[in-house]
Amino acid sequence: MSKPAVLLIGSLTHTKKEWEDCESFATLKVYTGSSRAEFLAECEKGSYKDVVALYRSNESTSITGPFDAELVPKLPPSLKYICHNGAGYDNIDIDACSSQGIQVSSTPVAVNSATADIALFLMLGALRRIHMPYSSIRESKWRGPSPQLGHDPQNKVLGILGMGGIGREVAIRGRAFGMKVQYYNRSRLSSELEGDAKYVTFEELIRTSDVLSLNCSLRKETVGIIGKKEFEMMKEGVILINTARGKLIDEGALVAALDSGKVFSAGLDVYEEEPKVHEGLLNNPNVVLLPHIGTATVETQRNMELLVLENLENAVTKGDLVTRVPEQAHFRQPSTRL
Ligand SMILES: *[C@@H]1O[C@H](CO)[C@@H](O)[C@H](O)[C@H]1NC(C)=O
Ligand SMILES: *[C@@H]1O[C@H](CO)[C@@H](O)[C@H](O)[C@H]1NC(C)=O
Ligand SMILES: CC(=O)N[C@H]1CO[C@H](CO)[C@@H](O)[C@@H]1O
Question: Residue 282 class from Cβ within 10 Å (0-12 exposed, 13-18 middle, 19+ buried)?
């Protein structure tokens, strides 16, 4: 009996051997083309007609474009699983996949610590308005022309919007710095997961946090969740941290709130129109900017790749995914094919 096939789109960096080992349960195929049109042509030609599952590297979006409502129906009919490398999967149309009977996994758990670490790095940098002194010393200007005092995290209220795996790691780190943690999530966490974090409404979170850290997924309902109205409700001198997705914030409104002094500083790893960054942010010496490097560590990149491969293996050998996207919880079936 011939083995089912799996397809890799994009490349693997840290798990080449583990990928080759997948040969024990599947025939390995790799898409090496360089455009969406070419990929669709391969699909149409039937090059992937026996492919059951595919590994989609995050970078592959730059080759095939998003897996949207146009592309998904053109995938091979044999395809049942898309294993995506990345915690965010807004470049995959989940509804389109569901209606084709295709199940999707992402890599939530693997990214938690690294993303929370970068959130804290940005928070400390924003509290200290670190950009000026940090760059002045390299320009042989010591602390720069107008050194300013920063703020301590201790006793400040850390508000976390979205208390998933990343949010909870941010909470742990915040507590270590003596912060009081409160959060909003669409549903309240169990008491074990919640710990001593206080559950508040969205509005209370916005009104009472000294530092606000965004950790919600980007969905229709969360685009621009932090805009003009929310900035108006915030405390004077609030600090905003975003390591989730740029489109959660209305960047124009953020720039205005920074310029007016309402927002003391912001720490950003993600942007509305990545890799384009708003001029008003680039020109503001009080903000701390990073070019989306939240998960850019050797350990985390390898763990993400391993988790995609684990999903791939489970998909092919057990007909189930390990970290299926939450929108597709209804696909979960008791696995009898162990
Ligand atoms: C993943 O790809 C999207 C574009 O599809 C991009 O916006 C994002 O920055 C990428 N993520 C990382 C961690 O590079
Ligand atoms: C946060 O809320 C969402 C939506 O209700 C829910 O799916 C998720 O499980 C909640 N997070 C936790 C850790 O309970
Ligand atoms: C409110 C919300 O969308 N929270 C999300 C924060 O991110 C985690 C992943 O780390 C999701 O599980 C939560 O649903």
Answer: exposed
What CATH number labels 112-289? 3.40.50.720
- pTM summary value: 0.86
Structure tokens at 264: 């003391």
pLDDT by residue (tens digit) across 249-305? 999 999 999 999 999 999 999 999 999 999 999 999 999 999 999 999 999 999 999
| Residue 86, ligand 1, Cβ within 6 A | yes
**For residue 338, is pLDDT > 50?**
no
Q: Is 232 exposed, middle or buried (0-12, 13-18, 19+ CB in 10 A)?
A: exposed
* Residue of 292, 301, 308 with the most ligand 1 atoms within 8 Å of its CB, for mutation: 292
Q: Which residue has the tokens 């959660």?
A: 248
Instruction: Please report the atom of ligand 2 found closest to the CA of residue 162.
Output: 1
Q: Reduced to 3 DSSP states, what percent helix, strand and coil does the chain have, rounded to the nearest 5?
A: 40, 15, 40
Q: Which residue ranges does the chain devote to CATH 3.40.50.720?
A: 5-106+299-328, 112-289
Interacting residues of 114 by C-beta distance below 8 A, sequence separation 6+: 294, 295, 296, 297, 299, 300
